[in-house]
Amino acid sequence: MLPATMTPSSPTDGARNGGSAIAKRAARGPRKQRILWDSDNATPDGKTSIGVLLEWLTTPGNYARWCDGKGQAGETREKLCSEINAALRSHGILHRENANIRTQISELERAFDAAVMWLVDQGFGGRLPPATEDASTAAAAGAVAGAGAGAGDGDNGGHATANKTPRGVAEAHVQRLCRYFHVLYPVMSQMTSQPRTRRPYSRLSLGERRPSASTADDGDGSGNETTSEHGGATGATATATTNATTAATAAGVVSRKRRTPTSETMPPSFAQFEQAQRLFLEAAREEREAKRLRLDEERNKLECEKLRYEVEAKRLELVVQRALARKRLLDAGLSADEVDAILLVQQQEQSSETAADEPSTTTQEDETELADVPAPAPSAEQDKEQEQRNWADASASS
C-alpha cells in the first residue's frame, strides 16, 4: 500500500531583476509549469509518477539493479531510467524525462539516508523501534492519562499517549524527513552493506554511515503502517522537538565537514600565486634582456663589417690615386726613384693631416702598412728637391 500523496512544494523562485535576465527569459519563451510527482495521474483512478516509481523500486531486484548500474558493471542507469519511463508512459504519463527520473531517485535516497542517520544518532540502530517495546509504556501512560481525564476524554487521551511513545515520536520525525520511509525501508535497508557512491555535492551515503546495530525488521518494512505528517507534527512533544533540533545540528555539522575542501583540492594561496607571477615576470624580463643583447651584438657585427668595407674601399681609392699620380710623374720625365720619393712624402703629409683631424680613424692595418715602407734616402741637394716637389705639385694639380 503506497502512502498518501505529497503536499505541494513551495513556489518557484521569483522573477529575476535586470533587463538582461528578462530579455533572456523572453528569448527562451514561457517557462514550463512544474508538474508535481504526486498529482500528475492521467486518469482520476490512475497512478501518479511517484506511485509508478515507488512500485518499480519496491519490485524485488530492481533497486539492486539500480545500485549495480552506478558502476557500469551491468545495465546502465540510463537504460533503467528508460525502463521506468516506459512504465510511466504505460500509465499515460508522457512528460517525464530520464534526467527527471534519475534526480527523483537521488532525492528519495537522500531523504532515506537522512532518516536513517537520525535514527542512528538517536540510538535506534537505523530503524524504527518495535511496537512491542511500547506496549507496556503506552498502557501505563494511558492509565495515568485516564485517571486524570474524564470519561468522555478517554479516547483522545489514549491517542495522544500513543503519539508520545518512543516509536510514535520517532515515526513522526522520520515521516517529516522521509515521507516514503515505510515503502523504501524494505529495499534500501538491504543495501546498507553496499556503499552508495555520491557526487561531491550530495550528503552522506549509507556506506559512510556508522554501521547499524541490527538488520532490517521484516515486520516494520511491510509498508502497512502509515502516519499522517500533520498528525505526527501535532502529536510530537517537546522531547521530539529537542531531538529534531539536535539531529539537524549534528547533520549540519557533518555536512559542513564534508563540504570542507581537502589540501589536495584547495586552491593556491595568494602568496603562492604572487610568487609564481613574480618568477614568471622575472623569467620574461631575463628573456627580453638576452634577446636585446643578441640584437646589439648582431648590430655591432654589422657595423664592424660596414666599417671594414669602407676602409677597404678608401684604401683601394688611395692606391688608384697613387698609381695615377705615379703615371703622370713618369710621363713628365722623372725617374722612378724621384717619383717614389715624391709619392712617399705626399703620403706622409696626408697621413699626418688625417691623424690630426681624425686620430681615432687610423687603423692598425694602415699603421702597419706605413711602417713597412722603407724610409727615403736623404737628398744632397735641398734646393733641387724643393724645386722638384713644387714641380710635382703643379703637375698633380694640373
From TrEMBL:
- For bias type Low complexity, the affected ranges are 235-252
- Asked whether the keyword Plastid is assigned, the reply is no
What are the UniProt keywords, alphabetically? Answer: Coiled coil
Which positions are tagged coiled coil?
A: 276-319
Region feature (Disordered): 1-42, 191-270, 348-398
- Basic and acidic residues bias located where? 381-390
Q: Which residue stretches does the UniProt record annotate as biased composition, category Basic residues? A: 25-34
Ranges of Polar residues composition bias in the record:
1-12, 348-363
* Protein name, UniProt field: Uncharacterized protein
Record the organism: Pythium insidiosum (Pythiosis disease agent)
